[in-house]
Amino acid sequence: MTPILKSDILKNGRAVTEQLERILSRYKGERGDLIPLLQEVQTRFGYLPEEAMQGVAKFLRLSESIVYGVSTFYAQFKFTPTGKHTIKVCRGTACHVRGVTRILEEVEKQLGIKPGGTTPDLEYSLESIACFGSCALSPVMVVDETVYGRMTHEKVREILKR
Ligand code: FES
């Protein structure tokens, strides 16, 4: 499956509809298709666009409130676009003691966003997380699947430059 650029989706609302039609064509339209369909939509777009949720509801002959209710029940579903890369900064005790607050401030400064935010170009999303389980490496920052330990301001700048 070729990923489409999220910026393209935002620029052209039709992209959602076209991609959704392709996804729907592989399903029979049974109610049991709801979760797999939402999962596929999220994999495709990185979140559940409103137009896609409406399309799924229509396809399955369910009310939009049911589709919305089911999707909000599961933590795996997101309702706003997320960046191509996700940066997580640990806010656990060990990381806190070793100065992660200043690391987080540096990331916020470099990206111009706060935790829970996404850069306007949809390149980065920033999250703060509870203990990541790598306390010996604190302070810890995770970029996508890569864990960076013993973070410093310089390391933040270096990593984001890449
Ligand atoms: S407190 Fe940050 S990894 Fe455990």
Spell out the key features of this protein.
162 residues; alpha+beta; elongated; 2 domains; Arc Repressor Mutant, subunit A; binds FE2/S2 (inorganic) cluster; 4 strands
Task: Characterise this structure.
The chain is α+β, with helices and mostly antiparallel strands and 162 residues long. It folds into two domains: 6-73, Arc Repressor Mutant, subunit A; 85-161, Glutaredoxin. It is 47% helix and 11% strand. The protein has eight helices and four strands, in the order αααααβααβββα. The chain has helices at 6-11, 14-24, 34-45, 50-60, 64-73, 93-97, 100-111, 153-161; strands at 85-90, 124-129, 141-143, 146-148. Strands 2-1-3-4 form a four-stranded mixed β-sheet, covered by helices on one side. Residues 1-12 have low confidence and may be disordered. The site of FE2/S2 (inorganic) cluster has 12 residues, from helix 6.
Low-confidence parts, pLDDT < 50 over ≥5 residues?
A: 1-12
What molecules are bound to this protein?
A: FE2/S2 (inorganic) cluster
- The computed structural class is alpha+beta
Q: Architecture of the largest domain, CATH level 2?
A: 3-Layer(aba) Sandwich
Q: What is the helical fraction, as a range of percent?
A: 40-55%
Number of domains: 2
**Distance linking N and C termini:** 26 Å
Strand order of the largest sheet: 2-1-3-4
- SSE arrangement, N to C: HHHHHEHHEEEH
What percentage of amino acids are in beta strands?
5-15%
CATH superfamily of the largest domain: Glutaredoxin
Please tell me how large the radius of gyration is: 19 Å
Q: Find the count of extended strands (DSSP E, 2+ residues).
A: 4
Shape, principal axes of CA atoms: elongated
CATH domain class of the largest domain: Alpha Beta
